[in-house]
Design goal:
The chain is α+β, with helices and mostly antiparallel strands. It contains five helices and five strands; from the N terminus they run ββββααβααα. The protein is globular and about 35 Å long. The N and C termini lie far apart (41 Å).
């Protein structure tokens, strides 16, 4: 069994609050993964140019089981056509997963992490969603 049910698009480097670099394998959304621990990010494409594709990270989360990623994202605001890709890095250690998630949340300040869990009558922080 392979790690993912889709071919990898490319790798994407993301930086945490301390400047530490994390390299994620990027897949088209939706993708399904093997049951292993890791950290995932969901992104949307915000610009495509001759230099490549730029992504906005919407959400980052550590999980003990990447095969359950779709359950983590089973919320209307994330499933409403905003997600283009998902990036993953396998991380076996729970403490390392949580450290990576915390670093990336500080460094990237993903909009969907700031409004999770959704509150009634709250405005989505992703401009394309309510724009």
């Amino acid at each position: 069994m392979s790690f993912a049910d889709r071919p990898k698009l490319r790798s994407i480097a993301l930086y945490g609050g301390s400047g530490e670099r994390f390299v994620f394998d990027l897949y088209l959304w939706p993708a399904h993964f093997a049951a292993m621990g890791g950290v995932f990010v969901v992104t949307r494409v915000i610009e495509t140019s001759g230099d490549g594709t730029e992504h906005q990270v919407l959400y980052v989360r550590a999980t003990g089981n990447l095969s359950l990623v779709n359950r983590h994202l089973d919320v209307e605001c994330l499933a409403d056509g905003l997600i283009d890709c998902i990036g993953v890095i396998p991380v076996a250690s729970q403490s390392v997963r949580h450290r990576v998630e915390a670093e990336l949340r500080i460094g990237l300040n993903p909009p969907c992490n700031r409004c999770w869990p959704p509150e009634p009558d709250s405005k989505c922080l992703v401009d394309r969603h309510y724009g």
